[in-house]
Design goal:
By secondary structure, the protein is α+β, with helices and mostly antiparallel strands. It has an eight-stranded antiparallel sheet, with helices on one face. Helix 2 packs across helix 3. The longest helix is centred in the C-terminal third of the chain and has 43 residues. It is globular. It starts with 19 loop residues before the first helix and ends with a helix.
């Protein structure tokens, strides 16, 4: 029933522009979950006021992801070959009183700074295929993600949809907040340098 751990490994999302308050809560992040037979199809969307590279740097920070995605205990790059990465992640998905430990090894193909492809090698799912697009949209970056998955254990539709939507919104909002945090840090450091230069 809690075999939705793959949610932690989808780092993409279609999205709508939101205010800074929405960015903190994730209320503006749209998540659509469809369950048909064994298959689970997830689409997300949101926008963030950052460049494609700024967004890319967070979504592909596999070695540092456990520092800003709270359900991840470990995240690391296992191997690299040209534009393909093999990554390992483990952690615990939590929803109310239920805790679900998970681990996953995935192959990720990167096409900077606009497309991320992911393929499950081993883990808590029988199948996990995901595609993430980063699209320049005025002063923002639009992230569009689509995932198709098949869990190893049957998930009741009513409970599964609620759990998946919650996990996805929470985890991707944490990623977006990290994008915002890093951009703010850069801007603050730049302003501080300018102040020092003006004072000299």
């Amino acid at each position: 029933m809690r075999n939705a751990s793959f949610l932690l490994f989808l780092w993409s999302m279609p999205f709508m522009a939101g205010s800074s308050a929405d960015s903190l809560t994730g209320r503006d992040i749209e998540v659509q979950v469809n369950m048909a037979g064994e298959s689970i199809i997830i689409d997300l969307s949101f926008a963030v006021s950052a460049t494609q590279q700024e967004v890319w740097d967070v979504l592909t920070d596999f070695d540092g992801m456990a520092d800003f995605v709270s359900n991840l205990k470990e995240s690391k790059v296992v191997s690299v070959f040209e534009d393909k990465f093999t990554i390992f992640q483990s952690g615990t998905a939590t929803y109310g009183p239920i805790r679900y430990p998970f681990e996953s090894t995935r192959e990720v193909r990167l096409l900077p700074y606009h497309k991320i492809l992911t393929h499950l090698i081993s883990g808590n799912m029988r199948k996990l295929e995901g595609t993430t697009y980063l699209i320049h949209d005025g002063g923002q970056t639009r992230v569009i993600h689509h995932t198709e998955a098949i869990p190893k254990v049957w998930i009741p539709a009513a409970v599964g949809k609620i759990f998946i939507e919650h996990e996805m919104r929470e985890q991707f909002n944490e990623m977006r907040n990290e994008i915002i945090r890093r951009k703010r840090t850069v801007l603050e450091e730049r302003a501080e340098r300018n102040t020092v230069n003006d004072a000299q």
